[in-house]
Amino acid sequence: MDIQLLLNTVLVVLVITLTVATCYFVVVLKDLRETIKKSNAVLDNVHKVTNVISDPITSLTGLVAIITAGMKAFKNVKNSKQEEEE
Hints:
By secondary structure, the protein is mostly helical. The protein has one helix at 2-85. The longest helix has 84 residues, at 2-85. The radius of gyration is 37 Å and the shape is rod-shaped.
């Protein structure tokens, strides 16, 4: 009879321990989910900031390319006029 009481007590303690561990695991998973949501929001903000920074730089690069092409065209026209005069 003593062994049965001891086994029942161990079983009850084990069930309580597993229940507490399961509840703690669920709380940790909820916290992890919230942390991932917050980090996702931070990454979205970083993406927006990098787009705000990179778009003008891209436009500036395109503007420099257009100016360079215009200068080359102007030089070609100028050189062709000089060759025609000679």
